[in-house]
């Protein structure tokens, strides 16, 4: 199996099941023009997030790592008109691009992009009593993933779903002797989740337009 096969299959699935509409295409274009890195989820992954949030009946979603708001739009579209999505982004330039993209998608009434280091924003959200959130998408700096999962449990409720992106690290996640900080933090996160009395979880490897990677999914228990 080659990357070109993975791309062809992703293109086929995406064409028939999860094509970018005008707002999503505009978000991709505006993000590229603004010089944002090409690291948003693929269209079929965005649709997966959308379906998971919809299946969850989510009314409140928390995303950590906005970039240009591409995944944000897929997730925001799973919410009812009185739903709420808060997306946390460190880089103010990225947040500006995202806000414009989200507004073009007609989601500015229900989506709020907050700038700052996510750990600070999470503490502030707790102080505001902003939770409980029904769905979490964790996709920011990988070294903080153990902290982000702990926060998700704190800001969630029994039944909340937590999705963590990019957990495979090119396969290095299986290497206990890796000195890569993102790998080490991913392993700490996986092991923390596995031992957590309030989480039931799995992780799945993926291939496609975004290469070889994977998601971790965890459900918050009573
Ligand atoms: N979820 C997006 C991609 C996010 S890329 C999508 O799929 O469309 C990761 C983002 O996390 C980047 O925009 C980066 O600026 C942001 N980020 C990195 N460290 C962060 C931190 N400490 N707090 C909040 N955001 C952070
Ligand atoms: C990177 C970050 C992501 O969230 C992603 O999906 C792919 C790559 C990165 O920082 O390189
Ligand atoms: Mg990611």
Give your account of this protein's structure.
The chain is of the alpha/beta class. It has a domain at 3-157: Rossmann fold, CATH 3.40.50.150. Helices cover 44% and strands 18% of the residues. It has a seven-stranded mixed β-sheet with strand order 3-2-1-4-5-7-6, sandwiched between helices. A hairpin with a 6-residue loop joins strand 6 and strand 7. The longest helix is centred in the N-terminal third of the chain and has 15 residues, at 3-17. The model has no long low-confidence stretch (mean pLDDT 97). Residues 139, 165-166 line the site of magnesium ion.
Key phrases:
alpha/beta; Rossmann fold; seven-stranded mixed beta sheet; binds S-adenosyl-L-homocysteine; binds magnesium ion
Concise overview:
This protein is α/β, with parallel strands linked by helices and 222 residues long. It has a domain at 3-157: Vaccinia Virus protein VP39 (Rossmann fold), CATH 3.40.50. The chain has helices at residues 3-17, 22-33, 43-55, 70-76, 92-104, 118-128, 145-155, 181-195, and strands at 60-64, 84-89, 111-115, 135-138, 161-165, 199-206, 213-220.
At the first level of CATH, what is the class of the domain at 3-157?
A: Alpha Beta
Number of strands: 7
* Oligomerization state: single chain
Low-pLDDT residue intervals, each spanning 5 or more residues: none
Q: What proportion strand?
A: 15-25%
Average pLDDT, rounded to a whole number, is: 97
